[in-house]
Specification:
heterodimer, A: 170 residues, alpha+beta, four-stranded antiparallel β-sheet, 7 helices, 37% helix, elongated, B: 929 residues, alpha/beta, seven-stranded antiparallel β-sheet
Chain lengths: 170, 929
């Protein structure tokens, strides 16, 4: 059974960590409180060229993922770093939000038993049933948020992370 | 790697030139570096040197910063947003006494400019030139204005001590003064410095003349326009047929269109050769397709013939409201393969708009013309002192002027398979400060040497460019970089190619393209880490194991999936072995690329004898040192799909041009450079690994030493080559059951007479090209036997046997291609001309000689062409040709040490050799009456 609902979605563009960004965050986390230097990490991870980790380290510094663990506040190298709250969040979610929050109003066809939104090309041919006698909250609970994120990102190069969604019309 | 010497050899003119050498006589004397006798740049003392760097944001900043970032570790720089500003302030601090190398450049439009870079001994950098460990360094173009030297351009230069007319400038630096206080007298002293000048500008004049001539020929080529009245897509949708109006000369049309990219213009549209704005392009199906890949057929319809309705066409220009086909008319159908863009448009349903309904077909010369322009720019850049190695023109035109080291530093090979000659070549190339010349006959492991050389350079934190005239050679060189079973994550290869051409790259080589290179590299990183885990290798501390497991898992699972895209830019910037064609390196998108620092410590050019000198120049401009790899006993530069000599034979231009532009159109430029280079700077590889020894014995006829004995040796010994190159075929043939036995690796099937003993003749010429149907029948018969044998022994299972069928004649190649392709399920048969096979190898090679009459003045007598054709075979070489026509043919072959060519009855000698091996065959072995 498929039902069609209208949903207000608040989402933000989300960029997954590259393997190098994951490495610098994980290294600081794994080896806390004394993470390795960029040089040591470059050697151990067999990257050979320090610029790769340095670039990732710089990007994560700019994202606020690190703070200095040294009394003088220096943050020149991985060895100087510890994870900030933001850094822990980024590592935990394997990515970070970029750009502004956006609100979308979308008609979504949902496979009711699984709570998964149907891809656009399937929606067009899907047989729509009248909405079951359930509340908006029940529909929201049934919806799979991860699947909704995939649905929102499908067909675009942008990955979205849903911050909030609200079923407004069953 | 260790170095032992502090000396460098400087050549001085003193002795007579060697026999056959076109160059001035030179000897070498050993001198201690860096006090190069008579070569030390003079010192210019100034009270102060005012440098104005404030234009960096507008002019050179990005380029310079990119360069510094890519060399940050080598130059021991920090990681700052303003890396260039930091470098300038550290290198040339205000109020400090500093020294510069200064080179005055030739004036341009009346303006004078200089190149400046820091003197390394002052900055504490080691001088590496004397050991061959040369590299690039930051260098700036400056102008004199208002008492300051204004930095207005960044051009990477070569580290080390330059030769006069460069000078050593010394003074107290004042960085970014608002108003400089260098005096008019200072300016005059700078103006008095002799400017950089080419040692042999007249040679470049020759090169320019050659390019002018090529340009004129190309423009002429674009003027041949063929009106068509209709076109139709053919049912398989991979090709299109244009119907040319009236009767055209088929042979001439073939000659003009064969292997060319074509354009379809609306009628009466003026052609602008330099700028293609034609609405439709019909290029070759693939940049690496065979000579005939643009064409399938060209067919003329006579007065009484008409195309049949329902043949897949007629959808265009059908009279509205009627199904009537057009009236019969004289026309010529030209069938062409569609390129990728057009196929994509077809898939999008744009089939009606692919070409103008009626119009004109013409050769697309835009690519050729822009290539010529790039080569001209290269010559200009050399003349303006814009080569990274300012000595380039010295050794390029006279290899005896190339500097060389007294001793060759030892190195530890990265692989165990190198033979002594290969080790010597790598060591010599690593030690050479300017250039090294390597001659590599077929199958002697040129790619192995190039791979080792690049890996050794990477170990020294050097960046390499591997270039070649041919795409395939570039791909092959990159493919040889990572030895089987090794990970070598320190090697970061990248194939530089325009994105639209990436689909033309053959599947095994796609892993070096921008899109795949990152993923491929990260997988090698993961594999290396896994090895570390297995061997418990940890460099600094022991608690890495758990983290490495996670790291390997992450990389092997494909990371976030975004790695390839997100890290691509970073990878491209830090790729350390870049592969590109010579022409690609001459494009401004390459040498001024924002993504790539086109300044290389080492430039390797493969198949150098196939490149014209202006082609060769383009990559050489970008490197501190060059290694030129080639074999002047293989094919020379090509004109379209022919050698220049063949183009003359085809009547494309007069033979006086062959004399006038000898260096450009033959391999003589590389040959002369190779033969004249100091022994320390050149080597010939002699051990071959490709061919069975019997095949090698045949090929040795083209590599005679002074006594006439072939120089090629079986790599690993004759027994090993024999064992590793077994075909195991036992072909019974038609009559007496001995067509081919397992121990036989060369056959000559004599096509002089047919089964009834009548002398066979060639078919009427197709244009200027020859073909021989009887030889096609013999080849088909042989392949049928081979297929039956494969079916018997493997039951049709397993990998198809790779068979190359080669002819020197285009008409024969076209016929062979039409008749042989896809005919046998157990065989992968490729029929092509010799030039398409250079750089390739096949288990079985069949060569069709075509000629039946006595051979004279023909290009079957060009030993380089015969050499390439015969040396493609690994296990079995089959020559199909008229013994009577060829056995007395005299072919001039020069000894490998140089000197005048000597007449040799080479075909006769080869036939005698093959007869000794028991491989002489008659048509009755293959055919039944």
């Amino acid at each position: 059974m498929n039902i069609q609902v209208t949903i207000d979605i608040t989402a933000v563009e989300f960029r997954p960590l590259t393997s190098l960004e994951w490495a610098v965050l994980s290294l600081v986390n794994h080896f806390a409180p004394t993470p390795p230097s960029l040089e040591e990490a470059t050697q151990e991870l067999r990257l050979h060229e320090p610029a790769f980790l340095r670039s990732a380290f710089q990007d994560m510094c700019n994202a606020g993922a690190f703070e200095s663990r040294l009394p003088d506040g220096a943050l020149h190298d991985l060895a100087d770093a510890r994870l900030s709250e933001t850094g822990r969040e980024i590592l935990g979610s394997n990515g970070m939000e970029v750009g502004e929050k956006m609100t979308y109003n979308r008609d979504v066809v949902i496979d009711w038993p699984s709570g998964r939104p149907l891809p656009a090309h399937e929606s067009k041919q899907a047989e729509i049933s009248p909405a079951p006698g359930v509340s908006l909250e029940e529909i929201e609970q049934r919806l799979d948020p991860t699947a909704l994120e995939e649905w929102l990102s499908a067909g675009t190069s942008i990955r979205s992370r849903i911050l909030e969604f609200l079923v407004v019309d069953p | 790697m260790h170095t032992t010497n502090q000396h460098i050899l400087i050549p001085q003119i003193s002795s007579p030139s060697p026999p056959g050498s076109p160059f001035a006589p030179l000897d070498a004397v050993m001198l201690p570096a860096p006090n190069l006798l008579g070569m030390v740049p003079p010192v210019l003392e100034f009270d102060r040197i005012d440098l104005d760097t404030r234009a960096k944001e507008q002019h050179y900043g990005q380029h310079a910063a990119r360069f510094l970032r890519s060399r940050r570790d080598e130059l021991q720089l920090g990681d700052s947003e303003r890396i260039l500003g930091d470098w300038l302030e550290t290198t040339w601090p205000t109020g400090e006494l500093r020294e510069f190398w200064l080179t005055k450049l030739p004036p341009q439009n009346g303006r004078h400019s200089w190149l400046i870079r820091p003197v390394e001994s002052v900055s504490g950098q080691p001088t590496t030139q004397d050991t061959g460990r040369v590299s690039v360094c930051p260098q700036f173009r400056v102008f004199f204005r208002d008492g300051t030297l204004v930095l207005l351009g960044f051009e990477p230069g070569q580290r080390g001590i330059p030769k006069p007319p460069s000078v050593r400038l010394r003074g107290v630096v004042h960085l970014d003064p608002r108003c400089g206080r260098m005096t008019k007298a200072d300016e005059n002293r700078l103006m008095e410095v002799p400017h950089f000048a080419l040692s042999t500008p007249e040679r470049l004049t020759e090169w320019r003349k050659f390019l002018d001539w090529r340009e004129k020929l190309t423009e002429e080529n674009s003027k041949h326009r063929y009106p068509y009245g209709e076109w139709e897509l053919l049912p398989d949708r991979k090709s299109v047929r244009f119907y040319l109006r009236g009767q055209v000369q088929i042979d001439l049309l073939k000659l003009r269109f064969q292997g060319q990219a074509l354009l379809a213009y609306p009628p009466t549209r003026a052609i602008k050769p330099y700028k293609s704005d034609a609405p439709a392009v019909v290029p070759k199906s693939s940049t690496r397709g065979g000579a005939g890949s643009a064409f399938r057929t060209i067919r003329a319809l006579g007065d009484d013939q008409n195309r049949q309705a329902g043949s897949g066409g007629w959808r265009h220009r059908r009279k509205p409201g009627t199904d009537e086909p057009p009236a019969p008319q004289q026309e010529t159908g030209v069938e062409l393969l569609l390129n990728k863009d057009l196929k994509e448009r077809l898939n999008r349903g744009e089939e009606d708009d692919l070409f103008p309904e009626e119009g004109e077909l013409a050769v697309d010369v835009t690519g050729e013309l822009s290539t010529i322009q790039n080569q001209r720019n290269g010559i200009d850049r050399l003349g303006q002192g814009r080569a990274i190695n300012l000595e380039l023109d010295q050794w390029l035109f006279n290899s005896q002027r190339a500097r060389f080291s007294v001793t060759t530093p030892a190195f530890t090979p990265t692989v165990s398979v190198l033979n002594e000659e290969q080790i010597k070549s790598v060591a010599g190339a690593l030690a050479a400060p300017d250039a090294y010349y390597l001659q590599g006959p077929p199958g002697t492991g040129k790619t192995t040497v190039i791979g080792e050389l690049c890996r050794q350079s990477v170990r020294q934190a050097r960046r390499c460019l591997v270039a070649s005239q041919a795409n395939l050679a570039v791909d092959n060189a990159l493919a040889g970089l990572i030895p089987k079973g090794q990970t070598m994550p320190e090697v970061r290869p990248l194939r530089w190619l325009e994105e639209r051409k990436e689909s033309d790259v053959e599947e095994p080589f796609k892993r070096f393209l921008r899109k795949q290179a990152v993923r491929n590299w990260l997988l090698r990183v993961a594999a290396a880490c896994k090895e570390d885990i297995a061997t418990q290798r940890s460099l600094v501390r022991n608690d890495w194991s758990a983290f490495k497991h996670d790291w390997v898992n992450r990389l092997e699972s494909g990371g976030s999936g975004d790695d390839a895209e997100e890290l691509r830019e970073l990878y491209v910037r830090h790729a350390n072995v870049i592969g590109a064609t010579c022409n690609a390196t001459g494009k401004i998108d390459f040498y001024n690329s924002a993504a790539l620092n086109a300044a290389f410590d080492l430039v390797v050019v493969d198949e150098v004898s196939k490149a014209t000198p202006p082609e060769l120049l383009m990559p050489l401009l970008l490197g501190v040192k060059a290694v030129l790899v080639g074999d002047h006993r293989q094919l020379p530069p090509m004109f379209k799909t022919d050698t220049f000599e063949e183009a003359v034979a085809n009547g494309e231009f007069e033979d006086t041009k062959l004399v006038e532009f000898k260096d450009q159109v033959t391999a003589s430029f590389f040959e002369q450079s190779f033969l004249s280079a100091p022994p320390a700077l050149r080597n010939t590889l002699r051990e071959q690994y490709r061919m069975h020894p019997q095949i090698m014995d045949v090929v040795n006829n083209f590599y005679p030493d002074g006594s006439g004995k072939g120089i090629l040796l079986p790599g690993g010994g004759r027994e090993t080559r024999h064992r590793e190159r077994q075909h195991k075929f036992n072909l019974k043939g038609r009559r007496d059951g001995v067509l081919l036995k397992p121990g036989q690796h060369v056959l000559w099937i004599d096509s002089t007479e047919n089964l009834t003993g009548c002398r066979v003749g060639e078919a009427p010429k197709q244009g200027t090209s020859r073909w021989n149907p009887f030889e096609i029948e013999l080849i088909t018969g042989f392949l049928e036997e081979l297929h039956q044998e494969r079916q018997r022994t493997s039951g049709g299972e397993g990998v198809r046997l790779d068979v190359g069928v080669i002819s020197f004649y285009l008409a024969q190649t076209n016929e062979l291609r039409d008749q042989l392709k896809g005919r046998w399920c157990s065989l992968d048969v490729q029929a092509n001309t010799v030039d398409q096979f250079q750089g390739r190898e096949c288990s079985v090679v069949i060569v069709s000689l075509v000629r039946c009459d006595e051979v004279s003045g023909d290009f079957v007598k060009d030993y380089r062409r015969i050499n390439v054709a015969f040396s493609r075979a690994k296990q079995l070489l089959v020559i199909v040709g008229s013994r009577r026509a060829f056995e007395q043919a005299v072919v001039p072959i020069a000894p490998v040490e140089g000197g005048e060519p000597r007449p040799a009855r080479v075909y006769g000698a080869i036939h005698e050799q093959i007869t000794r091996f028991g491989g002489a065959r008659h048509p009755h072995h293959l055919l039944t009456s």
